[in-house]
Structure formats: structure tokens, C-alpha cells
Amino acid sequence: MKAPDAQVTGLQDHDALLPGAQLAPQLWRRLPQMALIAADLAGYLLVYELFITIVPQGLTTVPVTEPVMLLAAATMALQALASLYPGYRLHPHEHLRRRLLATIPLAGAAALVAGLLAQDAWLAGILLGFQLAALIVQWGLRHLVRGRLMRSGAWGDAVEVIGAPALARSVSDYFTRNWQYGINPIPAHHGTAEGHRPVALYAGHHMPATAELDALRRSHAEVILLADLPNLRISGLCPGALNGRIGMTIIGRNRAGRPLQRVMDLAIAIPALAVAGPIMLLAAIAIRIADPGPVIYRQAREGLGGRTVHVLKLRTMYRDAEQRLNHLLETDLAAREEWARHFKLRNDPRILPGVGRFLRATSCDELPQLFNVIAGNMSIVGPRPFPDYHLAAMDGAFRQKRCSVMPGLTGLWQISDRSNADVELQQQLDNFYIDNRSLWFDGYIVFNTFAAVFRKTGA
Fold first, then answer.
1. What is the DSSP string of 119-172?
2. Does residue 185 sit in the same domain as residue 294?
3. pTM (2 decimals)?
4. Which of 112, 215, 235, 239 has CA atoms 20 to 30 A from the CA of 391?
5. Which structural domain range is residue 401 located in?
6. Which residues 6+ apart lie within 8 Å of 373 measured at CB?
7. Rounded to an integer, what distance in angstroms lies between the CA atom of residue 216 and that of residue 223?
């Protein structure tokens, strides 16, 4: 998309740079991340072998291997949380700052623990030396790996630079020369070999107009308002005020770490399933007494990438629920209006007396979805997987956006208004969550879900 007085320029054909993208696009996109992790691991192993060789046996009161490996693992975890794998779109000095903050304080703390608690000054010195030596070796290895990735075409994101022709050309030239930023300028509307939408880098003195942003949202994965560069004053935005990033994301895809999110999902779902097992067993018995028949049912819902997810639930309705609902909507105008706004009814004739209302009020009917989470087709936190009739009330662009993340067992809607929210508010809450998703946000939602369930708010 371009404004009448704007032009998108690119200096290289990104498709031609990605020979491996046709074969394994998911693996190809993750290659820089995996390669840099491997480089850091190799750096630690090289320094470890060196230290094992030069440090005399028996110098420390405890074996060296366990402390240095634990220090290495903790440091790499902090670097992952600091978005240094692969670390696109960060200024060089920001890379340095984040690496040092993930390395030096942790090494100092480890040395302090070794010196004070283990009463081993040699071990403290070895830990400090190990971390500093690894930092130097890793710097060289990362430089070599990034260069190799760049030459193979695996480094960086495909980016359309949008702006006035002269400025767009200057910006494209800058990022082509400084390829370490991970920005590969491509021609307008060129797309990528993986079939994914490119990133739009908006180089202008003002925010794009609302209509222009809407068009960019549909055609691009992200829209970034470019901050000033070292040799180009562009928007007046200071990278220092943006945590060292090259610009401000005004429309963006979610970059929450999927591997870390998966770890959190399993860490919550597996213990929760052990606790929920007896509850589900008692509920199954009560359901069979209230209305004999299956106690768990599967319903097809829309999941990540538009794929079908078979969501599991404890049955809380009569087996002839649809007939009961249709009869009510045909005969009760107020119920019909309530259904049109919320797709739920406060006095729902389909709900089983006693057990059905209890399960829905406490959200215990959703407990079997822990199996969905463990299977990997749902997450603990995410937009709820709605039925087709509910999704039909939402616009197509938003439905596509919903499919960009995994559906969740709970979400922002559940802790904000739960079933009191109408479709418009549900859409607004899900939009906010998808745009601002992070592990911290997910943790906040999980914590507050328990409070919402105990209060039975809006259930």
C-alpha cells in the first residue's frame, strides 16, 4: 500500500535470497534463532573445555562443572527473554547493553554466592572468568554465524520501506548496508517466498492516517513507524526512548515467545489436570444422574491458522438443547434480543438443573480443555474458541487476526467482563490482548482468572 505521494522502494529480491524457504518455511524462519543459540552454546563449551584444561584438579571445594553449566543455562535464558535470539531491529549499542545486563550481574551474583556461602574464593573467580571469557568468544562466534546466515539469505525479515521516494531509497540503502539489523528491503507488494506478509517500515514525519493504517494492517504483518537513524532524521522519535529499537510498532504481529509459552502451558496444565481429575469424575456422575448420556462432548472450533480444533467440554445442557433454544427464541422477543447481543442467556432453558449451572458458574465445564492444552492445539491463555455462529457476528479481518494466535482456556474477556460482554466488547478485548500479548500479560490473566471464577463474575 502506498500513499499518493509515497513510494515503496527495495534494493533486493527477497524471494531470490531464500532458496531453503520453499522446502521448509517454518524451519527456515527459525534458523537464525537456532543458529545463534547453537553459537552461544558452542562458546560456552569451548570456554569450559579451556577451563577444565588449565584449572588444576582439587583447586575448588566443589566440582566446577555443575556451577558453570547452571550459570550458562541461566544466562542464555535471560538473553532469550531479552529478545537476543535473533535480535532483529535493535541498534548495536542496545545489543551490547542487553547482553551485558544478562551476563555480568548474573556472573557477579554467582561469584558472590560461591564466595560467601560455599566459602570458595577460587570457585568465585572461576565463575567470573568463565562468564567473561565466554562473552568474548560468543561475540566472535555470533559475528561469524550472522555473516553466514546473511550470505545464505536466511537472515532478517522482508520489509517494505514506505515513504517519500528519496527518503525511502535512503532508508533502504542504510538497512542494506547495515544488514545486522535484520531488515531486508523488498519491492512494493512483492510478498515473500514463504507466503507470509512482509513488514511495513513507515518512514515519515507523521503518523499514517487511519485509512492508511487500516490498509497496511490488511497487507502487512507489522507496521513500524521508523525512528531517527544515525545519519537520517526521519520522525523525531528517539531510539533511546524505544528501548534501543529502530522504531515504534503501531500495528504488529505477536512476538511472544512460543517455546516459552509452551513451557508455561505445560507447567500449568499438567498439575492442574491432576487436581481437576477428581472434580471431573464427580461432575460426570452428577451429569449422568441429571440427564443420562455422554458426559463429555467435542465441538469443532476455529484454531490457530484457521485449523479446526475439537474442543472438549463437560456437558452442561440437555441432549435436546438446540430444540429448547429454538423454541425459546421463536416465542420470547427479550430472549431473542439478549441472544443477538451476547450469544448467551441468563436464564437458559438448555442448562441442566443443579450440576449444569454449577459447572458453568465456576467454569469447571472447561476443565477437559486441559487435554487440548497438553495436546498443543490450545493454550492456557488466548482468545476463546467460539462456535461458528458466534464468529459469524465478527468481521472477517478480525477473525483472521484471531487465527494468528492459539485459542485459550481463559483470556482477557473472561477476567474483564466474562459473559456480560457483548460481541463488540469481546472483539475489542481480544484485539487488545493479541496486540499486547506477552508472558507477563498471560501470567496476569491466569492469576486473575481464579479471582473471576471464585466471584462467579458474569458467568
1. --HHHHHHHHHHHHHHHHHHHHHHHHHHHHHHHHT-SSEEEEEEE-HHHHHHHH
2. no
3. 0.69
4. 215
5. 258-316+351-455
6. 265, 266, 268, 269, 379, 380, 409
7. 7
